[in-house]
């Protein structure tokens, strides 16, 4: 019997494909199928426990959610939270990272990095639980702010006031992630060769000038990348808002999109409508990811 | 000359002041968590907050483990979180390693396509597919079971990416030498490639473990009975029902954080390595 000769290269190549099969199956079933399914289900009036077959309604769910003040409120809450969180995080972490790199003592630098990073170690649910107590009317939040502003006995209504409860969720996120972003920036900063700074100092540039004229332009790709990462992270926020609502905070001001999807889909069992919301969230995040790719491609710096 | 020196000192003082303020801001809530977990509620709510517990009130921890209804369900929930997180860490590392190896070291047709396909899933946020995933879990009869908690997280695209990037630099000579020696392909992976991935195994393992330890959303969807719930769900229930028992709530928080602090203390290098997406992008 004659067998077709298969070279060793091709033979081993088959193994390569075989090694990727588990992942291909996994991602097909648990990533691609669900997103296509969400797209499909978003065209139907589907409910979990209803026995009647789901009714096709085209873009009906989309027109419904886009004319519902509740969904617009969620979009507003999500974007307010995202902007109010990622801008301070990026500014402060860049500032702190720059300061840390000026420290001459490596031990001090290492200590600060670890200490800033510690809140990122605990889970986000624990973080929200701690801050629920800090934001208690008698808690540390009021005590700190009143000590700084010398206004004893004022209740800032951290969890009760419409505006304050949004600020509170931002504070939790800022606290938890500042150290993480500091480390990202330190990685970026340490890739700038010190020779450039030495040359600038010899030419009479001050530290302030060096930061604006050298550090920031060279760091621009890192800043863009970190900003978009932070934004994507914030758009998906769930735990803090969920726990605050469980703890008694008003829902509407912090009813972010993920929370709304959960309530609509699971609590109210409106699967079709929740799927439409999911698709909207997906498209928003896709847009930001696309921007991230464009920037990270065109803006690589050569030293 | 003198003026310049003085100005430099002032900016150093300012830098230290800002660094210390942020240090206080990041650390005090954690100190608050630990100290108040040993206080009776009436001491916690007294103003101003006193940082040293009056009596070592360990009863908070008993109340934490016992739960509101005295059902002692929390230890079971801790076990669930441990079991799910460890399993996911192991499967993620194994599947990501073998897929990354296949993509990095074999020239089969369509490997670029497979790689792009897997990378594309990184753009699909879990939050956008949780509802259909919930339906999948229901159809596969996986709701309220360990399978339901684990299976959607068996491997991550980011893990495959990391492994592939790491293994592209692995010298192919070793692989060819082993083939000449008559070693099978699976043997080569298991005995030569996998043990050499140690740094990625550590970062990826920790990242996946943390991901599940922290996961609130999926267990919220997929579990129903108290005995299948995980730590984040227990905390959120505690926050809902027992807001007034601050001490016990912080005891729950400390118990939930202990494994993380332990891991961080032992392996902080890999924690921070795992968070550095920037590096992996460049790699």
List keywords for this structure.
heterodimer, A: mainly alpha, MetI-like fold, two-stranded antiparallel ribbon, globular, B: mainly alpha, 15 helices, disordered C terminus
In short:
The complex is a heterodimer of chains A (303) and B (283). With 303 residues, chain A is mainly alpha-helical. Chain A has a single domain, classed as MetI-like fold, CATH 1.10.3720.10.
Alpha carbon gap, first and last residue of chain A: 63 Å
Please indicate the count of domains of chain A. 1
Beta-strand content of chain B: under 5%
Q: In terms of quaternary structure, what is this?
A: heterodimer
Structural class of chain A: mainly alpha
User: What's the name of the CATH homologous superfamily of the domain at 85-228 in chain B?
Assistant: MetI-like
- The CATH topology of chain A is MetI-like fold
* C-alpha-based Rg of chain B, rounded: 24 Å
What distance lies between the first and last C-alpha atoms of chain B, to the nearest angstrom? 45 Å
Word description of this protein:
The complex is a heterodimer of chains A (303) and B (283). Chain A is mainly alpha-helical. Chain A has one domain (60-298): MetI-like fold (Orthogonal Bundle). Helices cover 75% and strands 1% of the residues of chain A. Chain A contains twelve helices and two strands, in the order αββααααααααααα. Chain A has helices spanning 8-41, 60-66, 69-102, 106-121, 124-134, 140-149, 162-190, 194-202, 207-235, 239-246, 257-267, 271-298, and strands spanning 44-45, 55-56. Chain A has a two-stranded antiparallel ribbon. In chain A, helix 3 runs antiparallel to helix 9. In chain A, 41% of the residues are buried. The model of chain A has no long low-confidence stretch (mean pLDDT 88). Chain B is globular. Chain B has 15 helices and no strands. Chain B is mainly alpha-helical and 283 residues long. Chain B has a domain at 85-228: MetI-like (MetI-like fold). Chain B has helices at 2-36, 41-44, 59-66, 74-105, 111-120, 126-139, 146-150, 157-168, 172-180, 185-193, 198-213, 217-222, 231-241, 246-275, 277-282. Chain B starts with a helix and ends with a helix. Mean pLDDT of chain B is 88; it is low at 275-283. The relative contact order of chain B is 0.13. The interface between A and B is large, with 99 and 96 residues.
């Amino acid at each position: 019997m004659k067998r077709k000769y298969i070279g060793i290269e091709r033979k081993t190549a088959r193994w390569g494909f075989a090694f990727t099969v588990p992942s291909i199956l996994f991602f097909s079933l648990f990533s691609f199928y669900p997103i296509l399914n969400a797209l499909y289900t978003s065209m139907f009036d589907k409910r979990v426990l209803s026995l009647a077959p789901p009714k096709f309604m085209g873009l009906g769910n989309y027109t419904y959610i886009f004319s519902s003040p509740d969904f617009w409120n969620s979009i507003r809450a999500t974007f307010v939270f995202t902007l109010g969180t990622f801008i301070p995080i990026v500014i402060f972490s860049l500032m702190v990272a720059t300061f840390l790199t000026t420290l001459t003592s490596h031990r001090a630098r290492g200590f600060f990095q670890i200490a800033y990073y510690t809140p990122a170690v605990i889970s986000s649910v624990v973080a929200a639980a701690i801050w629920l107590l800090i934001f208690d009317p008698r808690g540390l939040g009021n005590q700190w702010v009143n000590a700084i502003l010398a206004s004893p006995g004022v209740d800032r209504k951290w969890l009760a006031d419409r505006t304050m409860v949004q600020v509170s969720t931002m504070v939790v996120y800022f606290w938890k992630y500042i150290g993480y972003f500091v480390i990202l920036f330190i990685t970026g900063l340490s890739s700038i060769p010190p020779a450039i700074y030495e040359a600038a100092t010899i030419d009479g540039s001050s530290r302030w000038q060096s930061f604006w004229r050298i550090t920031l332009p060279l760091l621009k790709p890192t800043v863009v990348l970190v900003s978009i990462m932070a934004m994507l992270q914030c758009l998906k926020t769930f735990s803090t808002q969920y726990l605050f609502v469980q703890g008694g905070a008003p829902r509407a001001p912090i009813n972010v999109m993920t929370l709304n999807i959960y309530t609509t889909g699971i609590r109210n069992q409106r699967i079709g409508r929740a799927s439409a919301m999911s698709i909207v969230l997906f498209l928003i995040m896709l847009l930001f990811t696309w921007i991230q790719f464009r920037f990270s491609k065109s803006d690589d710096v050569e030293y | 000359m003198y003026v310049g020196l003085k100005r430099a000192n002032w900016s150093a003082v300012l830098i230290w002041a800002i660094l210390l303020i942020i240090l206080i801001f990041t650390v005090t809530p954690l100190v608050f968590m630990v100290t108040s977990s040993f206080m009776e509620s009436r001491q916690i709510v007294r103003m101003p907050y006193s940082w040293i517990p009056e009596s070592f009130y360990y009863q908070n921890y008993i109340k934490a483990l016992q739960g509101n209804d005295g059902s002692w369900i929390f230890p079971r929930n801790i076990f669930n979180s441990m079991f799910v997180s460890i399993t996911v860490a192991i499967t993620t590392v194994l599947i990501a390693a073998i897929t990354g190896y296949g993509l990095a070291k074999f020239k089969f047709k369509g490997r670029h396509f497979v790689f792009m396909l897997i990378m594309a899933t990184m753009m699909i946020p879990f939050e956008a597919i949780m509802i259909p995933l919930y339906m999948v879990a229901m159809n596969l009869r996986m709701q309220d079971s360990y399978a339901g908690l684990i299976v959607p997280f068996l491997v991550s695209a980011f893990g495959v990416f990391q492994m592939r990037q790491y293994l592209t630099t692995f010298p192919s000579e070793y692989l060819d030498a082993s083939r000449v020696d008559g070693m099978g392909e699976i043997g080569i992976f298991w005995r030569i490639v996998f043990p050499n991935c140690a740094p990625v195994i550590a970062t990826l393992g920790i990242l996946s473990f943390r991901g599940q330890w922290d996961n609130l959303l999926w267990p919220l969807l997929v579990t129903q009975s108290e005995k299948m719930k995980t730590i984040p769900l227990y905390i959120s229930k505690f926050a809902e029902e027992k807001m007034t028992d601050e001490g016990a709530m912080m005891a729950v928080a400390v118990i939930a954080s202990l494994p993380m602090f332990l891991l961080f203390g032992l392996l902080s290098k890999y924690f921070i390595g795992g968070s550095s997406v920037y590096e992996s992008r460049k790699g």
